[in-house]
Amino acid sequence: MSTTIGVTGPHPSTITVGRDLGFAPIAAVLDEAVMKVLIIHARPLAARAVALAEHLRSLGYEVATADHPDAEAGKAIEVVAGLWDTCGHLQLGRKDVIIAMGGGATTDMAGFVAATWLRGVTLINVPTTLLGMVDAAVGGKTGINTSVGKNLVGSFYPADAVIADMSLLATLPRQDLAAGAAEVIKCGFIADPKILRIVGETSPEILLDPSSEQLAEITTRAITVKARVVSADLTEGGLREILNYGHTLAHAIERANDYTWRHGDAVAVGCCFAARLAQARGLLSADDVARHDQLFSRVGLPTRYGGSTLDELTHIMLSDKKVRRGILRFVLLEGIAHPATVSVDPQELAAPASQIGIRA
């Protein structure tokens, strides 16, 4: 049983969500003009990448596999340059395909390779983490890191297809499932309150069980939220900014800690901070703020941060992609499921920051 979610707009694509999908859905989306396939995968997925390669070879395709360093270390220009060489040795043509198999770092980086090789070849994402399924693999953002920040070099380049197989989450550590749940809960706050109800009413053991119907439902719902937003605004000209709820502070926390914090952990803290900033402006109630703390902490995510000073984090936030003319911009909620992007004076940050443990 699977669900197919369509992304419309100038670059239409499909997202298939299900369990025990196997390799058939991947082969099914290959165009008849495809001759060669490069599978770029995270190193722990070598056996699965080889199995997929053998399956595709049995169907007549020429297939190569290539791994990359784990996590953010893989999102470096040196890694991309090596993969460009691999594309060249394979003689990967414009009608051929790159399959990205792994978590968000894999789909971010391999997507950038696909976007830039021959000015763009077909991309298929096979996310193997919950965070990848609901965030990185969907929506067309590709990118790599530089010494001055995360994802500052990249492109909007949607995958033609995303195959999200929930069974691949079975071996994922609980902390990584929780980190992925942060983006799911974020989607609940910005657009789908039913996600919040399910999280609030389901025990964490069931909610973070890859075989549970509840996790499958909130995952599908979160992907649907992102697909709907991306369909209306692929290149973040307006509406898509709402997906950055919690991310302004989150990205600063990640960078301040040399990306040793999980993205989802940082997003949870960022959302709890943004809720307090909205409360200070009279946009959210105390109950709304408490609901943020309760739902994120319910799945084991942090809601407080004390590793850096507010001055340090503000300096980092001012270099964020979302800054306009030196003015901080935050996505805030004007009530649950009513997000808006607003300009914020740095002086407004002190009170909500202290409430979540950030030192002055």
Structure description:
The protein has helices at 24-28, 46-58, 77-90, 104-116, 130-136, 174-190, 193-201, 204-207, 213-232, 247-256, 263-280, 286-298, 310-317, 350-355; strands spanning 2-7, 13-18, 36-42, 62-68, 97-102, 122-127, 141-146, 149-156, 161-165, 328-333, 339-344. The model has no long low-confidence stretch (mean pLDDT 94). It folds into two domains: 2-169, Rossmann fold (3-Layer(aba) Sandwich); 177-355, Dehydroquinate synthase-like, alpha domain (Up-down Bundle). A seven-stranded mixed beta sheet has the order 1-2-9-6-5-3-4, with helices on both faces. Helices cover 44% and strands 19% of the residues. The protein has 360 residues and is of the alpha/beta class. α5 (130-136) runs parallel beside α9 (213-232).
Describe this protein with a few key phrases.
7-stranded mixed sheet; Rossmann fold; alpha/beta; Dehydroquinate synthase-like, alpha domain; two-stranded antiparallel ribbon
In short:
The protein has 360 residues and is of the alpha/beta class.
Tell me the CATH architecture of the largest domain.
Up-down Bundle
Count of alpha/pi helices: 14
CATH class of the largest domain equals Mainly Alpha
The global form is globular
Q: Rg from C-alpha positions?
A: 20 Å
Indicate the proportion of strand residues.
15-25%
What strand line-up does the widest sheet have? Answer: 1-2-9-6-5-3-4
Query: What is the distance, rounded to the nearest whole angstrom, between the alpha carbons of the first and last residues?
Result: 52 Å
Query: Would you give the CATH topology of the largest domain?
Result: Dehydroquinate synthase-like, alpha domain
Q: Indicate the percent of residues in helices.
A: 40-55%
Number of domains: 2
